[in-house]
Specification:
The mean pLDDT is about 95. Helix 2 packs across helix 3 and helix 5 packs across helix 6. This protein is an alpha/beta fold.
């Protein structure tokens, strides 16, 4: 069993630098569609059995482009959604991004329940993401099934150290989190292990 994690393709929200972690109409750009198509080609020989995607539009569009090319079914799950920024959603001004950075800094300082008003905390993300990945591993670890999970940069940065035995936040902070990067993981001795993070090989 292998699980591939990816961040969605470039979206209009990325270009406009708008916080768009709810169901807002920020679609993929032409570049984002091209990135998704290229990722599908990269995954062409990986026998992807199913794709799971965040409900947010940019992730949905990324998953659909890849799913169509790989003939793989796409299932939507809130487990993979980016963390909700509450009252700052839909904004791209300095105050909104300052609030975003403040919450992330609180998490790094050991305050996982910190959140923007009406938004999600680290604890909320953990409660939906970790059980989903653990259940996927438990159900398929002894099979040849491979999966693609289409998610978001901040979610992957904060949550993958909780499910990957050989990856830390410090490591991720030094790696690429580009749109449509590929994070290749496998199961060894009951643990999910990162074999390759984009171009960085961890497991030979």
């Amino acid at each position: 069993m292998r699980i591939f994690f990816t961040r969605h393709g470039e979206s209009q929200a990325n270009v406009e630098q708008v916080i768009s972690n709810r169901k807002l109409p920020h679609a993929l750009t032409a570049k984002g569609r091209a990135q998704s198509t290229a990722l599908a080609a990269q995954l062409g020989k990986q026998n992807i059995a199913a794709i799971y995607a965040s409900p947010i539009l940019r992730a949905q569009q990324t998953a659909q482009i890849i799913g169509e090319r790989l003939s793989a079914p796409v299932t939507t799950t809130p487990a993979l959604a980016e963390f909700d920024c509450g009252i700052m959603e839909g904004r791209g001004d300095a105050e909104a991004w300052a609030a975003h950075h403040a919450v992330v800094s609180d998490w790094a300082a050991g305050r996982p329940d910190a959140h923007i008003p009406e938004g999600e905390s680290f604890t909320h993300m953990q409660a939906r993401f970790v059980p989903f990945v653990e259940q996927l591993v438990a159900q398929h670890e002894h099979t040849e099934h491979n999966f693609l999970l289409v998610a978001h940069g901040s979610l992957l940065y904060h949550m993958l150290p909780l499910v990957l035995a050989n990856v830390s936040s410090a490591f991720i902070g030094q790696q690429s989190m580009r749109n449509c990067l590929l994070i290749d993981t496998t199961v060894q001795n009951g643990q999910l292990i990162c074999a390759k993070w984009d171009q960085t090989v961890l497991l030979v």
